Amino acid sequence: MPLAVDRYELGPIRTNCYVVRRDPSATAAVVIDPSGDALPLLQGLTCAGILVTHTHWDHLLGLADLVAATGAPVWAPRSERDRLAEPDGAGHRLRVPAHDPEHLVAGGDTVSVAGIDFEVVDVPGHTAGHVAFYADEALFSGDVLFAGSVGRTDLPGASWDDLLESIRTLMERFPPETVVYSGHGPETTLADELARNPFLAELRA
Questions:
Q1: Contact status, residue 145 vs residue 91, Cβ threshold 8 Å
Q2: Residue-wise pLDDT tens digits, 29-80
Q3: Distance CA 113, CA 50 (A)
Q4: How far is CA 27 from CA 21, 105, 184, in A?
Q5: The Cα angle at residue 80 between residues 76 and 84, in degrees rounded to 5
Q6: What is the distance between the alpha carbons of residues 135 and 120, in angstroms, rounded to a whole number?
Q7: Is residue 48 within 8 Å of residue 28, measured between CB atoms?
Q8: What is the DSSP string of 65-133?
Q9: Rounded to 10 degrees, what is the CA torsion of 18, 154, 61, 107?
């Protein structure tokens, strides 16, 4: 059975925050990338855990408040721990509180929470330590792959070559019908992006 996934656009640049459950009847939920006030999204649900794909400010705005309100543990990229200790507002004058996550993850790890087993995949390129989370043909890609676009590589720690290789890995590793839940914009599938995404012409060659 597919996961129950609800997408919310939060924060000043409408970053996607996901509330994910094992099925529509489940009351335990996982919040992925709390990009704003996620607590009202959990009416009738228990936040069993919080997953962070990468540590850019717009994916962290609601993290501290959600942890304070729910006590939920956080899983974040191992190699971006230092950025969680000193996040910034990237010129937006937004204070993102520091956080010391309970769990640090990297590619090959499995996060088991709310009855869901998420496979962790290293996908550097947009940031050096970026990870994606995969479960049951659902891929939470953060800012690596979007519908019709890809993550920026003009930021510190970013690399176009790494990003393209990360996307190639996702295409080869997971079924083409995998639904991609991105950090911005609507969902898509790996097959649709490989066929049509103008940034991925090299992968179609």
A1: no
A2: 999 999 999 999 999 999 999 999 999 989 998 999 999 999 999 999 998 8
A3: 9
A4: 7, 25, 26
A5: 75
A6: 9
A7: yes
A8: HHHHHH---EEEEGGGHHHHHS---TTS---------SEEE-TT-EEEETTEEEEEEE-TTSSTT-EEE
A9: 50
On whether the pTM is more than 0.70, the answer is yes
Cβ–Cβ < 8 Å for 20, 5: yes
Determine the Cα–Cα distance for residues 60 and 52; give it in Å rounded to an integer.
Answer: 8
The span from the CA of 31 to the CA of 80, in Å, is: 19
The low-confidence residues of the chain, meaning pLDDT below 50, are 89-93
Task: Please give the pLDDT value at position 157.
Answer: 87
**Token couple for 193:** 């992006």
Question: Among all chains, which residue has been given the structure tokens 């090299």?
Answer: 202
At 2, list the tokens. Answer: 């597919």
Return d(Cα 144, Cα 125) in angstroms, integer. Answer: 7
CA distances 145 to 4, 92, 156, 204, Å, are: 21, 24, 18, 15
Q: Which position has the token pair 């290293």? A: 122
Measured between alpha carbons, how far apart are the two ends of the chain, in Å?
A: 34
The sign one gets for the Cα dihedral 63, 146, 127, 88 is: negative
Diameter of the chain measured on Cα atoms: 49
